[in-house]
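Board notes, transcribed. Complex of a protein with adenosine-5'-diphosphate.
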Amino acid sequence: MSKLKSKTVYLCSACGDDHPKWYGQCPSCNEWGTLGEYKVAKNRKKGGNGQPRDSRKLADVLHGGEVNRIPTGISEMDRVLGGGLLPGSLILLGGNPGIGKSTLALQILPAIQKPVLYVSAEESEDQVGLRARRLGVNSKTLHLSSENRIEGILDQISLVQSELVVVDSIQTVFSDELDSLPGSVSQIRECGQQLLQLSKQRNIAVIIVGHVTKEGIIAGPKMLEHMVDTVLYLEGDDRHDHRVLRSAKNRFGTTNEVGIFQMEAGGLVEVDNPSELFLAERQDDITGSTIFPSLEGSRPILVEVQALVSNANFGTPQRNVNGFDFKRLAMLLAVLEKRLGTHMGTKDVFVNLVGGLKVDDPAADLAVITAVASGARDKLISESVVLIGEVGLGGEVRSVSRLDARISEAKSLGFKSVIAPAANVKRMKKAPKGIKIFGVSNVGEAFQHLF
Ligand SMILES: Nc1ncnc2c1ncn2[C@@H]1O[C@H](COP(=O)(O)OP(=O)(O)O)[C@@H](O)[C@H]1O
Ligand SMILES: [Mg+2]
């Protein structure tokens, strides 16, 4: 293979764009201090062999056969992907080190009855073998390789004729043509680009595993997000066994879809009923606790909101929040103070979404504000009610998406009543049986029902 010459460019660690000269501020994404000097391969041909490609008529592709997605054998994973792996797609599987990315990647492979290549640039084949034994993974079509040169990986793929490739992880793979270290922005971009070309040319699915670290959150996988078709993040924290697989981007399915798993000795186990998991240790005799059906992707999951309100011992009261937006909590506290006359200025407020789930659904507002009010007033909220609604600055309760799905999840777990936005309730065609629905147009009305 002829050695290609390299040239110097200035790559942005935030957006991955390259520039011929150095700037203090990236001209593409306006981030400051992100450009660094890198050598990249010269003469890299953009479109394969340099020949212009033929265009095709829409009519010709419209009636092409349905693409067959490849099921992974793990239904939570398939749902998050939008119905299985799509041939020709590039998928990024990101997450903190140790969260279970390699475990998940290995567990989905045996179901695929086609040649599969698992490139473990991080671990030796024997180490992967050990893990496979622990996970009970066995497959006749699975090939392991600990190659870490991208050129070697591409050769292996041709050799094995694999239809699915896992590269674990992109931070340990490098190209001979660059003289920067594996894991650097230029290497990640170069290798990502080569894998992208390969997946489109050969019509194979490629899963790129990428570590996300607190400091390097932008430099690595974030840059790849623009390049790939689907971005999956495996989340969770050290204190809990459950893991949440979330699609942050999906060209071939809905985004923000989640799959819930439990990490066990034998690997990741799917959780069929996440609401039950999140409510398992609920105590119904404490103040400051409410239940909220959060919409995670297309699926409602019941989450408990806990709030603790106590007198502040020091000058500035503390606000601490887990799983919910800090600024949103500050806004809700201001609404509670101004519109509902509950004095919060000298109180410490702690809010926790139980189970480590992170919710950015505005429909959680009513449950959060009610939990805080219940804590502040020391009054219990009935354990059989769920609360749904976005709260506006005027204390009004605004409508939310997919109320019916949220209500049916609450009903299936035995809840007896729902407090929901009046505007939503008015639009409902048929009231569901077996659960009472109270429409409220402001937080005050909700409190009248509850306190
Ligand atoms: N013998 C074991 N029993 C139970 N869990 C294990 C065992 N070995 C590893 N794990 C779990 O697997 C995790 C590591 O998973 P791994 O897939 O290697 O993570 P990643 O690839 O994201 O760095 C550990 O944090 C631990 O939770
Ligand atoms: Mg790993």
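The chain is about 30% helix and 25% strand. Residues 101-102, 122, 168 surround magnesium ion (ligand 2) (CB under 6 Å).
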